[in-house]
Write a structure and sequence with these properties.
Blueprint: H1 7-14, H2 20-31, H3 41-48, H4 52-61, H5 67-82, H6 99-119, H7 123-134, E1 139-144, H8 149-162, E2 166-168, H9 173-178, E3 187-193, H10 199-208, E4 214-220, E5 232-236, H11 248-264, H12 266-289
Parallel strand pairs: 1-2, 1-3, 3-4, 4-5
Helix pairs in contact: 2-3, 2-4, 3-4, 6-11, 8-11
Length: about 290
């Protein structure tokens, strides 16, 4: 299990096995997550139109014997979501004392992030995402935040070589908004957002969800608030033992998706890559001819 996995993710995993009444509670919890879970039992039961005991049964299915324990865990998650380099403690030691030990410990923590991320990837989500990425009838739009824009660009470069209709949304917030007008029912939005989540990314997802065919969200283990609007969510472990979060797990997931897509759609992708190489060779030859 991913360390400190989001309660939201736990609810989504349990959803199909819940009773009708418990599903009503789950929907209330997810409607304004995580703040909805900080309400009283009476408030939640009233909104869900169920009894107080139903709310408690739901909480027990999540693994909490007491509602107070559930809310305490939720408060911890809220705190983790907001942590940055000033509040995260370095657990690797001091590189001044032994640089080799420090680097070895850092490398191990990166490996753990990759292992935990891939161990917990929801296979059904991955399969759905691959189908969306491989459908050339749909245009793909990619958007990342301040910390994840480089990953969005990296994904864009791969996809652009393998298929047509790939667009990278860049620039300041006002210019990003312009892209909303271009989104249609046959388009797919691919979002990258990790703690501390960007409100402009969440707002873009909310508005885009009314326009596009689907939204793919690649996020951290606590889940961006944009998950509320996503059709597919891939949680990646980003917490490391240093003051900075690590995107190595996110990068690994992107590379895995690109590799899977290349193998599954090779008969379509190979001619495109060959055409690209031929054009490059023609350009190189013309340059040398001059």
């Amino acid at each position: 299990m991913i360390e400190q996995q989001s309660i939201q993710r736990d609810i989504e995993k349990l959803f199909d096995g819940l009773s009708t009444a418990e599903r009503k509670v789950a929907r209330v919890m997810l409607s304004n997550y995580p703040l909805s879970g900080m309400q009283t039992i009476a408030s939640i039961s009233k909104q869900a139109h169920v009894s107080d005991p139903t709310v408690l049964r739901f909480i027990k299915k999540l693994g909490y014997n007491k509602y107070a324990s559930f809310q305490m865990r939720l408060k911890e998650e809220l705190d983790q979501r907001m942590q940055g380099p000033l509040s995260i403690r370095n657990e690797h030691g001091n590189p001044n004392s032994d640089l080799t030990v420090y680097l070895d410990g850092f490398a191990k923590s990166l490996t753990e992030n990759i292992d935990e991320t891939f161990k917990n990837l929801p296979e059904a989500e991955v399969e759905g995402i691959l189908k969306e990425l491989s459908d050339n009838r749909k245009h793909l739009y990619l958007l990342g935040g301040e910390f994840t824009e480089s990953i969005a660009r990296y994904t864009y470069f791969h996809l652009r070589k393998m298929r047509p209709g790939v667009h990278l949304i860049q620039g300041q917030v006002p210019s990003r908004i312009d892209h909303l007008l271009d989104l249609g029912k046959k388009d797919v939005l691919i979002l990258f957002d990790v703690r501390r989540y960007q409100q402009d990314i969440v707002e873009f997802a909310a508005r885009a969800s009314q326009r596009v065919s689907s939204i793919i969200l690649i996020t951290d283990q606590w889940l961006s608030p944009a998950a509320e609007y996503a059709s597919y969510v891939l949680p990646c472990k980003i917490a490391s033992k240093s003051r900075w979060d690590s995107l190595v797990g996110v990068t690994g997931v992107v590379e895995a998706l690109m590799s899977c897509m290349a193998e599954l759609e090779w008969t379509k992708i190979k001619p495109r890559l060959e055409s690209l190489e031929n054009i490059r060779e023609e350009i190189r030859s013309s340059q040398y001819a001059e």
